[in-house]
Amino acid sequence: MGNGVREGQVDFKRQDVEPVLSTHLPPEGNQEKKKVLNSLMSGALAGAVAKTAVAPLDRTKIMFQGESPYRLIYRTYLNEGFWSLWRGNSATMVRVIPYAAIQFCAHEEYKQLLGSYYGFQGKALTPFPRFIAGSLAGTTAAMLTYPLDMVRARMAVTPKEMYSNIVHVFIRISREEGLKTLYRGFTPTILGVIPYAGLSFFTYETLKKLHADHSGKLQPSPPERLLFGACAGLIGQSASYPLDVVRRRMQTAGVMGHTYSSILLTMQEIIREEGLIRGLYKGLSMNWVKGPIAVGISFTTFDLTQILLRKLQHSTNGER
Prior knowledge:
The protein is mostly helical. It is built from 13 helices and no strands. It is found in: Mitochondrion inner membrane.
C-alpha cells in the first residue's frame, strides 16, 4: 500500500507490460534463424548471378582442360550457335545455388565461432582465423554438393545426345560406372578448395578492412567491392589452379578415354604428356578473365543483398 498502487491494479499492469516486451523483443534464437536465412538467400543469389554471367567462359574452360582441341570450341559456335555456350548452365545452377548458399552461410557462422574462440567477437578477425573461416566454409560446401559438380563437368564436355538432363546423368553414371564415380576427383577438389576459398575470403575481408581503416568509411562502394572481389578471385584461383585441372581430368576421365587412379599419377601423366605449364596451367589465362569477374560479382551480390535484407527487416520491425 505504501507504493501508491491500489490493490487490483498491479496484476493488470504486469499483464499489459509483459506481452509488449515479449512481442517487441524477439528471442535470440529467432534473430539467429533470420541471420542464417539471410545468409542462405544472399549466398544462393550471389552464386546464381555470378555463374550465369560467366557461363560461356566456364564451359569453354572445362572443355579446354578436358583436352578438347580449341577448334572444337570454334565448331561449337558454328554448329550449335552462340547460346550453346550456356549448355549445362541449368546443371550449374542446381549445384551453384546450394553450394554458394552453404559456403556464404557457413563462412558467416565460422567467423562468429572463431571470433568467440579467439576473443574477437564483434570485431574483424586476425589474418589466420580469417583464412581458416574461408577454408572451412569452402570445404563444407564442397563436401555437401560434390556430386552436382561432377554432373556439371560431364554435361559440359559431352555431346547433347549423351545426356538429356541432369537426372539422366546421375542414372547413367550410377548404372554404367558405379556410384563411386560421382565422387571421382573429390580429394583434389577438397585440397584445391582449402587454398582457394581460404585465400578468396581472406583477401576480400582483408581489403575491406584496409579500406575501412584508411578511408574512414564503414562500407566500400559497389565498384570497390567488385574490385576487391576480383583481386580475391585472381589470388585464390591462381593458387589452386593445378588441382582444379586434376579434378576436371578425373571427373571427365570416363568419357575422355583416360583412367586416372590418384592425384599424383594424374599430375605425372599430365606433365609427361603435355608439360608442367601447358598441362597443369592449361586454361589459366581464361581463368584470369573468368575468375575475377565471377568472384567479384559473387562477393558484391552477397554483401549488397545482405544489406538490403537487413534494411527490409528493420523497416518491417519498425512498422510493427
